[in-house]
């Protein structure tokens, strides 16, 4: 199997997901305590003699409280082997029934004829990603910084928790990246991409069109958008070849996705619009779907002029995975992405191996602690998926 080291990519992804520091910085040095990295700079002494070192009166150990953002992506975990194989057998086409032709002129019975007409295609998922977090904890070198064993133990626990938090952040952001790649692949294939604003403006007619900014504060548009989402949840549950890209060789694939087996990934901006105008209209039936997840932003929240705007939250800029090996790969850029409906098999995590390891060096008295992940992120474009956007025509 092919294993890709993605620690560098992961660091870049994390930087985008977290957002950058504030652009406009005021000089508040000496006014607000922002935390110094050291206290041995001559300022942490008493103000009378200037000799006594100020003691730490209280230590607060701060860690993150994190959990997986997309638990429904974890689908096909397996312990042994390296490749996920998916076999699809398509429904058969009807053929002529001859039982009512018996006795007619020219009728020739066929006995035990062989019909080698099963439509089968097989897809293999082989690419796997891996990354690791590691730290060293000395036995005694921290002791001089604490006044009790329990306080030092809390500090060491915080380091270990930070290692776990780092893994959770990585898993969340790589899961989000798998979703972004699926969106980009669907846009690249021009399959199942629904521009809600274009549809709504077509109803309003020439001269009455509204803009993206107006749509995100318009009650009637909210009603229209919620209606379309409900309709497509039903459309995807019916057997169809419309919302996938086929078997990759020009053949169509019949798929159906039950509402309980469907990712519903909704941008917070759209959810907030529905909350503001539609809760009285019982829109909660979509929120109550088992695989509903609200997404604050797809790829990042940092804008050129302002952060967490609709334009930045709803945008992706991705070179899709299918562009691998291309001399000049195509970049997919799209703003206004507000919702993704997809089969759970369309965006999934296959091979999922996580391991915590430790090694004690008794000679130098320290422990190395690590967490490693080897994970297979899956996009299957032969499965159903619909991408909803709210974007002006270009």
Structural commentary:
The chain has 394 residues and is of the alpha/beta class. The chain is built from 8 helices and 13 strands. The strands form 4 sheets. A 5-stranded mixed β-sheet has the order 5-13-10-6-7, with helices on both faces. Strands 1-4-12-11 form a 4-stranded mixed β-sheet, covered by helices on one side. A two-stranded antiparallel ribbon has the order 2-3. The longest helix is centred in the middle third of the chain and has 41 residues, at 149-189. The radius of gyration is 28 Å and the shape is globular. The relative contact order is 0.18. The model is unreliable at 20-38 (pLDDT under 50).
Highlighted features:
394 residues, five-stranded mixed beta sheet, four-stranded mixed beta sheet, globular
Report, as a whole number of angstroms, the end-to-end distance.
Answer: 42 Å
The total of helices stands at 8
Largest sheet: 5 strands, mixed
Low-confidence stretches: 20-38
Shape: globular
Q: Which structural category do the helix and sheet elements fall into? A: alpha/beta
What would you report as the Rg, rounded to the nearest angstrom?
A: 28 Å
SSE succession? EHEEEHEHHHEHHEHEEEEEE
Task: Note the quaternary state here.
Answer: single chain
Strand order of the largest sheet: 5-13-10-6-7
In short, what is this structure?
The chain is of the alpha/beta class and 394 residues long.
Provide the fold topology:
Blueprint (H helix, E strand, L loop, with lengths): L2 E3 L1 H12 L65 E6 L30 E6 L2 E11 L10 H41 L3 E3 H9 L7 H4 L3 H19 L24 E6 H11 L5 H4 L4 E4 L14 H4 L2 E3 L13 E3 L2 E7 L3 E15 L4 E14 L5 E5 L5
Parallel strand pairs: 1-4, 5-13, 6-7
Antiparallel strand pairs: 2-3, 4-12, 6-10, 8-9, 10-13, 11-12
